[in-house]
Amino acid sequence: MDDDSRTRDTPPVMLAWLGHPVTVLAIVALVVNDHLLKAEYPGLVTGKLSDFAGLLVAAPLLATVVAGLAPRLPGTPVALASIGVTGLAFTAVKATAGGAAAASAVWSGFTGPSVILADRTDLAALPMLAVGGWVWTRARRHPATRRAVRRFGALVLLPGAVLAVVATSAPFYPDAVAVTVWRNQIVVGQANAYHAGDRQPEIWWLSERDGRGWRALDSAEETAFEAERSGLPAGTGQGCVPGEPAHCYRVVPGKLRIQETTDSGTTWRTSWEVSDEARRYLSRSYDDLGDPAIYLSSVALVVQPTSAGHVVVVANGRDGVAVREPDGRWTRVEFDGYGGTARRADPSGIDPGALAQEIVLALLVALAAMGLGGWLAARRGRVTVVWFVVPLVLGCVGGLLGIPGMASDEVIALLGRLLVVLGPLMALTGVVGILVFAGRVLPVRWLLLIILIGLSAGVGWLAPFVGWANGAIGYRNAALLGSACVLVGIAAAGWLGHRFGRPPLPKTEPSYPAVPLGPPPAAP
């Protein structure tokens, strides 16, 4: 088929290119590498794999989007232009600092704070564009013309390819690790905690207005700072107010806590802290945090005099910095991403990611309660639903194994990221099947009541942890209260299903009217 003469077939050909086994394999490799392997095994292999697989996916993805927007364009020029644009963009990003910075800004808009570094060794992946061109020549011979295939490409392949390509940038985890004084201004050094073990500052933030404002050093300031850096006083675990040697501050190792003394260290009191209970919740808000005693604790501080008193700035790792203003108030400041902005941390609000474990458990609890009630009703009504009980049980077990922190084994932890999604989906499939068949036994009002009780059990489990996240209750008390709600909900759903499930009607012989013996009565 000559797709240049039949321009109406350009989108199906591009979908065939995107759906070719080689491209699909590259999509799978990108998703698995970027979402699983790169975080667990950072290094040369996982870093380069994204580049090689990404070039195989980017060109057909770009061509598919262009063909969808302009279906009358000839196929071959679109394919060649997509390959050329992909190659040029990849070269500009990997070979120039400006291209890498621009790509970082674009990717941060899609995926949150991230960084792409220029690395000319990555240009070794460019030959994969030739492989992509070969795949194109194979795909154009068998365009995806069937409606079902087109829908599959639009609903599955295209979103999957977008997810794979967008995920290729390495994350940047802001990590305040150093603090010093430069030209009478406090400067905080920020590393990237994504590179575990390497806590060397990559970005420097300059304090303004006595710690009330922050900005990243510009290129000229950074050059001057690096030239003078070796002679600057480095922040340590303890510092005193200039001119007041008896008034000092110190960090508490392994804690987000600062102590203060006004009598040369005879007595110390807590001047600022994030309590251990609050830090336990806070630690869940950070991806791949590692040991909180290292990455979520006070590292170093400096004390700087001002016209109105003194300022204390503390580097707190992933939590940013804590600032004691001249009036004695303490505030927390967090830095956004690679070269982003600094803002005061908002103590209000709940991060759903920090309650991911409890949310997954709440979903599993709700499904288990609904499934138990439906199964008991169906069982009492002699309806066989065992084939739906199996995915429900397996899904709940898989979801439990996939919950972060539930399994410490490295292999299970890798699989857990998939199980935490696949498990509840499998359990949901089982519950839907059970409830459909239980509907043959239970009246609609009782079936709806079982569903409502199941949902209430899940909410009852989650609600105490929302209170814990707001500091209203301790974690252990939240777990006890949530467990009580779970037991009550599951027991209620099970009792309801068993109590009101209609048992099968007994088989009885039909009744017949009594027939009198003897001759019929005589007519009057």
Automatic annotation (TrEMBL):
Keywords: Membrane, Transmembrane, Transmembrane helix. It comes from the Bacteria. The chain crosses the membrane at residues 12-32, 52-71, 78-103, 123-140, 152-173, 359-378, 385-406, 418-439, 446-466, 478-497. This is MFS transporter.
